Amino acid sequence: MRLTSGLLAGLFSLAILTSYPSLSNSYIVIDKSDNSLTYYAHNIKVKTFSVATGRTDQDTPNGVYPVVMLVKNPWYLKKNIPGGTPENPLGVRWIGLEVPGTDGSIYGIHGTNEPDSIGKHASSGCVRMHNADVTWLYEHVHVGTIVEIVE
């Protein structure tokens, strides 16, 4: 039997994702090449969203990272903007990722007050979603959910 490179990549990704301990039967794959985020439950694709990723390839780091922080209406501390306000660039939810050297407060999946940026390479490293989409995702992930970021 001959496996295609796409199937091999998929099996490799599944092996990576299943080798990390998780408190959840779900995982997320973010594909920077088409600015999409796909949520899987029990290895079944449930929903795909359009997202914004980093302006450059290096801004949003490739890799496999666990969710370590979940925050409703996050404050934007750089400019002291309260959570839940329309001018907050983090939108209505923060899903923090444990990228090496960080604690879940640097890289994350979050809402945005710039919905026109969705579908583009527009962020400084985080993954932006429409507020309604990140609210849905927030309700389906848990601390320990694995997120894989690929090209």
UniProtKB/TrEMBL annotation:
One of its GO terms (biological process) is cell wall organization. It comes from the Bacteria. Pfam families: YkuD. One of its GO terms (cellular component) is extracellular region. InterPro entries: LD-transpeptidase (IPR050979), LD_TPept_cat_dom (IPR005490), Transpep_catalytic_dom (IPR038063). The keyword Transferase applies. CDD domains: YkuD_like (cd16913). The keyword Hydrolase applies. Pathway: Glycan biosynthesis; Cell wall biogenesis; peptidoglycan biosynthesis. Gene3D superfamilies: L,D-transpeptidase catalytic domain-like. Residues 26-150 form the L,D-TPase catalytic domain. The active site is at 110 (proton donor/acceptor), 126 (nucleophile). Keywords: Cell shape, Cell wall biogenesis/degradation, Hydrolase, Peptidoglycan synthesis, Transferase. GO terms for molecular function: peptidoglycan L,D-transpeptidase activity; transferase activity. Belongs to the YkuD family. This is L,D-transpeptidase-like protein.
